[in-house]
Amino acid sequence: MADQEFRTFEEFWPFYVKEHRKKSTRVLHFIGTTGAMACVAGAILTRKRSLLALAPIVGYGPAWISHFFIEGNKPATFKHPLWSLRGDLVMWWKMVRREMDAEVERVLAEEAASDGASDTTGHVSIQGEAVN
């Protein structure tokens, strides 16, 4: 799915959420996004352009570390930079409202349901056992 093309953000969002399934990944993203927003706000308030240059480092540093060392995947930013940025902001806002954990559970449950529905072997699984 990493090479999938997305036509809308709504198509991209479940992919983004699955790439951030571990809570520690989401926490590091939250820290990075908050820091990047603080750099942008500081640059505006103090008129120091150097803070704008620092914002991507502050924002993406913790996020990329979490992908490589915690999640074990590549950041979505590499293939989908604008939707990934939007995803970061949506996730940040959901974390502020304490809704992101439930969103991850919802997306993973939908994935599990669709994986079960797409079983083409002709077998039905009942409590983890295959039945013909």
TrEMBL record:
<feature type="region of interest" description="Disordered">
    <location>
        <begin position="113"/>
        <end position="132"/>
    </location>
</feature>
<feature type="transmembrane region" description="Helical">
    <location>
        <begin position="27"/>
        <end position="45"/>
    </location>
</feature>
<keyword id="KW-0812">Transmembrane</keyword>
<dbReference type="InterPro" id="IPR009305">
    <property type="entry name" value="Mpo1-like"/>
</dbReference>
<feature type="transmembrane region" description="Helical">
    <location>
        <begin position="51"/>
        <end position="70"/>
    </location>
</feature>
<protein>
    <recommendedName>
        <fullName>Transmembrane protein</fullName>
    </recommendedName>
</protein>
<keyword id="KW-0472">Membrane</keyword>
<keyword id="KW-1133">Transmembrane helix</keyword>
<dbReference type="Pfam" id="PF06127">
    <property type="entry name" value="Mpo1-like"/>
</dbReference>
